């Protein structure tokens, strides 16, 4: 029976069963070497790749031209990997540099003809174990002296720029429901929601200022989830001859596709790209001006992308603004144009200047008044200035109720009143959002030390207050 005979009455067919039949046909035809009908391929591909909340999905290139690379770069990557590995199969090389097997096989065959590579055995059908010859080893050493990188094959810079445009936070427009979902684990007043909503929806910069301990950093870290869950980024980007690493396991959380999508996903997704949760990068007092530039390592020949590139399509939080290792004026002068124009200029190791998207929500979190830190020209470019105030007494009591459940201590309202009446009001001590959590942890640790059940008493609260506020 042919594919056209499987469904003689489309109006009476079940779409779910048709999809399963089409996927089965596609797999059978791929195994037998016959091309599947175009409509079937499209349907299977859409089934194999789940919704990533963006319109951008990197497809596997079929040729080197589609991949945006040349044979010279590919030969260098293969040579350096074999120099490090000794010997391995062609498929192992393909998995290492994240390119389809047939692309790697063609280049390896040419290198064998040029006597740079020799086969030492056969692995599986159409796959061989290979290693460098003396000629190939000399070449590989020269390649490694210039640049030692042999990870995932870099993606052309223009493809990265296009991916940022398609996954931009400007397309997200989070609603009130999105914000409430993102901040569901925090106690946020309705008035604060009114201020945060338009600021997050704009995708522009904002100041969060107020006394320490009121949750400015916690608010900033949860903003990203309102823009959607996932984006695709390349593991590395090529700018002329420079290889710039972008994926950073320290700052990016990988979100692989579900295994239930089957092996078809490996054939349809460009493995040089990685799906991650929308990034939230937080930098504090350690920030220096060189972190805002492409950092070239002369020993390895590899460049590292700056924090604004790593945070594209997400959120960049400058925590404790005003306490960085660079001055406020230096930082603001460096970013005054990117914040307004939404693009930045970076220098490569060769001295070339490239325009890079500046597509993230920049949040400046500070304990100081913004007007005491920056001038009017910069404040104009940060349209939203939101104060995170101290909680009211009712909110403070509510926070204790919430945190008692989190810490695992029985909530006793009468003891919360004792705490406020004895330790807060007589001393004019202000309420802070962090106090309930911190004091309850002191109580829990006190009880744990004495091998007693975690319990809130006047004694444990007095100890916690004396210990916590001893120098405050």
Question: Main traits of this protein?
Answer:
5-stranded mixed β-sheet; alpha/beta; disordered N terminus; 5-stranded parallel β-sheet; 20 helices; 472 residues; elongated
Please, could you describe this protein's structure?
By secondary structure, this protein is of the alpha/beta class. 43% of the residues lie in helices and 15% in strands. The chain has 20 helices and 17 strands. The chain has helices at 15-32, 38-48, 64-67, 71-85, 90-97, 101-113, 134-146, 157-166, 176-182, 190-202, 216-222, 264-268, 307-310, 328-341, 370-373, 376-381, 393-407, 413-424, 435-449, 458-468, and strands at residues 87-89, 117-122, 128-132, 155-156, 206-209, 230-234, 236-239, 242-245, 273-277, 280-283, 295-297, 302-304, 315-318, 343-347, 353-357, 361-366, 384-387. Helix 4 (71-85) crosses helix 7 (134-146), helix 17 (393-407) runs parallel beside helix 19 and helix 18 packs across helix 20 (458-468). The chain is elongated, with a radius of gyration of 28 Å. The relative contact order is 0.10.
């Amino acid at each position: 029976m042919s594919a056209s005979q499987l469904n003689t009455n489309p109006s009476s067919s079940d779409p779910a069963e048709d999809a399963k039949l089409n996927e089965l046909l596609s797999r059978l035809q791929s195994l037998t070497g016959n091309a599947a009908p175009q409509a079937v391929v499209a349907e299977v591909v859409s089934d194999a790749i789940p919704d990533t909340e963006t319109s951008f999905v990197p497809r596997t290139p079929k040729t080197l031209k589609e991949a945006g690379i040349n044979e010279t770069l590919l030969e260098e990557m293969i040579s350096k990997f074999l120099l490090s590995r000794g010997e391995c199969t062609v498929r192992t090389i393909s998995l290492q540099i994240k390119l389809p097997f047939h692309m790697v096989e063609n280049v390896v065959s040419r290198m064998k003809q040029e006597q740079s590579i020799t086969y030492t055995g056969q692995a599986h059908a159409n796959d061989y174990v290979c290693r460098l010859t003396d000629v190939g080893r000399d070449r590989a050493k020269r390649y490694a002296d210039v640049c030692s990188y042999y990870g995932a094959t870099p993606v052309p810079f223009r493809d990265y720029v296009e991916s940022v445009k398609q996954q931009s936070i400007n397309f997200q427009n989070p609603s009130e429901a999105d914000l409430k979902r993102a901040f569901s684990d925090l106690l946020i007043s309705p008035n604060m929601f009114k201020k945060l909503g338009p600021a997050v929806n704009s995708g522009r910069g904002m100041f969060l200022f107020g006394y320490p301990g009121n949750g400015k950093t916690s608010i900033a870290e949860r903003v990203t989830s309102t823009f959607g869950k996932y984006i695709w980024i390349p593991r590395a980007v090529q700018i002329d001859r420079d290889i710039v690493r972008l994926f950073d396991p320290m700052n990016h959380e990988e979100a692989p596709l579900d295994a239930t999508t089957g092996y078809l996903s490996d054939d349809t997704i460009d493995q040089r790209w990685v799906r991650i949760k929308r990034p939230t990068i937080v930098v504090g007092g350690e920030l220096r001006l060189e972190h805002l530039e492409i950092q070239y390592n002369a020993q390895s020949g590899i460049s590292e992308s700056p924090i604004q590139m790593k945070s594209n399509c997400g959120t960049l939080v400058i925590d404790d603004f005003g306490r960085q290792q660079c001055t406020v004026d230096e930082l603001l002068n460096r970013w005054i144009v990117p914040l307004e124009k939404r693009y930045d200029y970076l220098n490569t190791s060769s001295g070339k200047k490239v325009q890079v998207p500046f597509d993230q929500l920049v949040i400046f979190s500070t304990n100081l008044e913004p007007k005491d830190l920056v001038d009017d020209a910069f404040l104009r470019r940060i349209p939203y200035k939101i104060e995170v105030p101290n909680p009211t007494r009712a909110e403070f009591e509510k926070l204790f109720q919430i945190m008692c459940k989190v810490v695992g201590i029985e909530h006793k309202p009468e003891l919360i009143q004792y705490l406020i009446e004895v330790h807060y009001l007589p001393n004019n001590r202000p309420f802070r959002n962090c106090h309930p959590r911190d004091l309850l942890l002191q109580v829990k640790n006190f009880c744990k030390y004495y091998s007693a059940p975690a319990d809130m008493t006047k004694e444990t609260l007095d100890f916690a207050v004396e210990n916590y506020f001893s120098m405050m």
